[in-house]
Design a protein that fits this description.
The chain is mostly helical and 189 residues long. The protein is built from 7 helices and 2 strands, in the order H-E-E-H-H-H-H-H-H. The N terminus is likely disordered.
Length: 189
Amino acid sequence: MEKTTAVKSKTGAADLALTALGAVLIALCSYISIPAAVPFTMQTFAVFLVLLLLGGKRGTGAIAVYLLLGAFGVPVFSGFTGGIGHLLGLTGGYLVGFLLLGLVYWLLTVVWGEKRRWQGVALGAGIVLLYAFGTLWYLLVYARRSGGAGVFSVLSTCVFPFVLPDLLKMALALLLANRLQPVLTRLRR
């Protein structure tokens, strides 16, 4: 009985450590930023990589930890910012959308399995949900503040410029995950 408990606690500690490291990676990549109405950052790449390396459950946990740290004011968002106001602002829906991306990825990889092609499809489905949620959020917050904006205008500002870079980040994350997965597997033993 004691041996089982020791193994579970070791696994639990490893899960917590990996989840924390995933949140740190997302935060670090959010600092790599090109300012714009919606900043171009590498945090999307980090979200993809964390999900691919840690799996849906731990990866989504890392995203949640990242968002909670930011909500409590830790400067983990782009531009070294944090606070609940950042999450509730114009682009907060795209940040919250990372959590939706993680949940969709987790669900689809449970259903389809962990093969890389299905992981890529799951990431693609998740990014579409992120774009939709973030854009709807932007429209609602903007309408409350300024009286409204056109959907095409918001898509032109918040989505269209990001599609190709996000696809490239996804491809890079898939390639890097293929290289790093054997190393992580050895470390877990």
